[in-house]
Amino acid sequence: MLVALYDNQFVDMTGETSKNQWYTKMKTGLLICPVCKNKVIPKCGSKNVWHFAHQSQYTCAGLHEAETNYHLMGKKSLFQWMKMKNENLYLEYYLHDIAQRPDIYWSEEKRAIEFQCATLTIDRFMERIFGYQSMRIESDWIFGMKRIKRNSENLYSLQMIDLTAAKKDKSGNLSLNYFCPLKEQFLLLRNILPISQRKVIAEGYTFSSRNLDAHFLLDTLNSRSFENKKRLWNLQKKTWRMTAYKNVSPSIMYVKKVMYFNHRSITLFSPLAGIPSSNYYFFETSPFIWQSHLLFFIERLSSPFNRNQLEKECKRLMDKRIFIERKLPYVKGSFKDAVKGYVNFLESVDRIEKINDSQYKKKKPVPYPKTIDEALELDKIFSNKAVFFDFA
Ligand SMILES: [Zn+2]
User: Fold this and answer.
1) Does the chain have fewer CB atoms within 10 Å around its N or its C terminus?
2) Which residues pair with 42 in a beta bridge?
3) 109 C-alpha vs ligand 1 centroid, how far in Å?
4) Residues 20-41: tens digit of each pLDDT
């Protein structure tokens, strides 16, 4: 940690205090942890960022995880960066009521900023987010750059929980932020389209922290890489077609069976499935799977049908853990919005017709390709009609 109490005053490791001055303070016995009030030792070596350590290894409520040098470095430089233009910032501010200690607390904005490097479980992560929400504190997560890998232009692999922290930017698209303390560089990930648990199509913008203002967190950045994103999406769709037969996840096994009994192969799923329709990411389950299933389900329903019937079917499969809803605590909405977005897509391609707010009439039949070549050709045509590539 970077903050301690000395003679009941907060002191921190971001200033000019020398090594000898820290040791003199320690010898008085008045240098303590602000949370558990036990003595701390200043660690002023040449290898790691200077910090305080508890004298012994008992548990302290203010420490959530062992801090690496990378984390200490990032926390310190993010704090110094934000302090250049903002006031009322507190490093490692302990929120007693929820026993949480955000890396940086911006009291004026009631905003907690966390620099997350270590791996943690989704449950622990949600707990911390809900902790802030319970105090009506806005929270933002900046992830360590080590957690993200760029595979090719517009294609990235992330750690599984990172998407949980996604927020919608001003244009309504998902966004995340990364920081590298070694290069003092930000990577702003914008217009994120999740394509699997860890892979996303997105636009990444790199900025030196010198050139960036702290209000960047929700800024919209739009580029003209739609063609490339469309191409990547279709590439992913091809991967789904080529690999689904050997995939044994519960959702794929289930839909594979449904298709089999309808004399269809999963490889030749309809080009109308696997679409980045509006809000599709509220399902963690792959869009080609849940959408394929809904197409079959609609086929069995009499016309007109109600959107509510589709929601119920999804809920039934979610209860069985066949479909999984994605946890997005910062984004308003639920799987119902994904269903609605998909139904809107089907309407836009003339397969169904809206009667009123929740009722639809069937129109044209759903196309199924006979060969893989035909499938790939149709995928291209229908991806042009997916709304996600239209706006922005
Ligand atoms: Zn402590």
Assistant:
1) C
2) 52
3) 27
4) 999 999 999 999 999 888 999 9
Amino acid at 286: S
CA of 78 to the centre of ligand 1 (A): 22
Give the E-state strand segments of 33-152 in sequence order.
40-43, 51-54, 89-91, 104-106, 111-116, 138-144, 149-152
| Residue 104 CA: distances (Å) to CA of 39, 111, 354 | 23, 8, 49
For the chain, the straight-line distance linking the first and the last C-alpha, in angstroms and rounded, comes to 42
C-alpha distance from residue 154 to each of 102, 225, 227, 255 (Å): 31, 8, 11, 30
φ, ψ of residue 82 in degrees (nearest 5)? -70, -30
Show the tokens assigned to 129. Answer: 């987010």
- Tell me how far the alpha carbon of residue 133 lies from the centroid of ligand 1, in angstroms: 24
Distance of CA 33 from the midpoint of ligand 1 (Å): 5
Residue 36 CB neighbour total at 10 angstroms:
16
Amino acid letter, residue 70: Y
Q: Identify the CA nearest to 154 among candidates 185, 198, 186, 199.
A: 199
Place of tokens 């019937």: 309
* CA of 57 relative to ligand 1 center, distance in Å: 10
Span from the CA of 29 to the centroid of ligand 1 (angstroms): 15
Domain borders along the chain are 1-63, 66-223, 230-389
Tokens of 216: 């960047």
* Euclidean distance between CA atoms 121 and 373, whole angstroms: 42
Instruction: Give the residues across from 179 on adjacent strands.
Output: 144, 186
Q: Please state the length of the chain.
A: 392
- Distance between Cα 4 and ligand 1 center (Å): 9
pLDDT digits (tens, 9 = 90+) for 145-165: 999 999 998 999 999 999 999
CA distances from 342 to 20, 38, 276, 330 (A): 65, 56, 9, 22
> Closest Cα partner for 379 from 287, 302, 248?
287
Q: What is the pLDDT of residue 382?
A: 84
Answer whether residue 226 shows pLDDT above 80.
Answer: no
pTM beyond 0.85: the answer is yes
| Structure tokens given for 318 | 């979610």
Asked if 314 and 335 touch (Cβ cutoff 8 Å), the reply is yes
